[in-house]
């Protein structure tokens, strides 16, 4: 009798366990479907880059407006790593998924400049690290007369933060202290002007240069050491208009 009762209990438990397992499996499948949403596609792809064409980045990422949503969700880090591996000019990439929109932010490798030390040339990257090269390639300024690598690194990090057009206009940066300014920089511009600046404020004040240069009737000096004004080569008379604008800047 006990054996028969045990068999009945087992028969009763097995269907119950089967239904519980089946229900758990269904819930799992439904959860996966809701998570991946196979019917959903990417609507927009926003790519932030400087020199590398956006269509090339899109090709590296293999993402477009018809890409299934499930291919992106949970895979953003992998996609970012894949993008970096595709191009030596890419320093890092970040891929974010917001709703049906994909944002791809690219940080490109920027040459911060070149410096000659001990009859050898070194290329400087955005972090201020040095790497030996044969000769400068002409795609970044040459640094001269700097006494310490610390100052070179500081200047390099400020340089890479500038707008591309401004970076491309800087040909040479010379450390040239005098009695009035122990951290004076002389900056040779490709457009024919010369800039006087200070190491500590270079990254901020050099951004005034395009506006000042646009108002200069002839080529000359743009002095950004203690103010922001200009004057023609061969004169010492500062441009009155720029002096006034500098005074207003100081009051802000």
TrEMBL record:
One of its GO terms (biological process) is FtsZ-dependent cytokinesis. Residues 114-224 form the Cell division protein FtsQ/DivIB C-terminal domain. This is Cell division protein DivIB. Belongs to the FtsQ/DivIB family. DivIB subfamily. It is found in: Cell membrane. The keyword Cell division applies. The keyword Electron transport does not apply. InterPro entries: Cell_div_FtsQ/DivIB_C, DivIB, FtsQ_DivIB. Pfam families: FtsQ_DivIB_C. One of its GO terms (cellular component) is cell division site. Keywords: Cell cycle, Cell division, Cell membrane, Membrane, Transmembrane, Transmembrane helix. It comes from the Bacteria. It comes from Leuconostoc inhae. Its main location: membrane. Gene3D superfamilies: 3.40.50.10960. Cell division protein that may be involved in stabilizing or promoting the assembly of the division complex. The chain crosses the membrane at residues 20-39. It is a single-pass type II membrane protein. The lineage of its organism: Bacteria, Bacillati, Bacillota, Bacilli, Lactobacillales.
